[in-house]
Amino acid sequence: GTIKYNVDIESAKSGTPKMNNFSFTVFLTANKSRTDVISNLGTESTVYDASVNKGFILKEYSGQKLMITATRQNWVDKNKANNDLNFIMEEGITVISGYTCKKASAVGQDGKKIIVFFTTSVTLANDNYNGSFPQLQGLPVKYEVSNGNLTLTYTLDTVSFDAVPGSTFAAPTQGYRVMTYDENRQLKIND
After folding, report:
1. Distance (Å, rounded) from C-alpha 114 to C-alpha 69?
2. Which of 6, 30, 120, 141 lies in the 20 to 30 Å Cα band around 99?
3. What is the mean pLDDT of each run of 10 residues along the chain (191 residues)?
């Protein structure tokens, strides 16, 4: 299936308008996942195949195209921050986009604050997708991530249970500079 979120960015600085300038789409099969972040700056896609324990990240910004290959351990490292979150369940329920939601909140080790409204009425066959909030059983309908002066709010736009073509998860064979996850991390450290 396919899950699409609209993302708003809001700054705590007074006079700064709220921006809606990107979308976050998740494509799922039982063993494969792909997330696409599309903004006016470029696109970033993360693909992971749990049946072979490997994946890749595609980045396209300012005419540059990069493919970062990833192993199972790289996937675990990439998602470690969210996997270590300790959510606190809050009382009550909220209806968002027609879904009855529970509310949970957490604070990351880096001080990032996360609030998630999720529904248990939709279950996903692939609970390994993107590693977003594995502690919460169900589908995030709306979630907020606050870090410093910025708050990103992801709001569910559409859910489709239609089959996703296998080509959605295929790695490109040309046009990208290829490096490993570890090589890319080393570049970031040296910047």
Report:
1. 28
2. 30
3. 90 63 89 91 92 93 93 85 85 92 92 93 72 82 91 92 93 93 80 54
**pTM (2 decimals)?**
0.84
Cβ atoms within 10 Å of 89's Cβ, excluding its own: 9
- 181: phi then psi, degrees, rounded to nearest 5: -60, -45
Radius of gyration of the chain (CA): 17
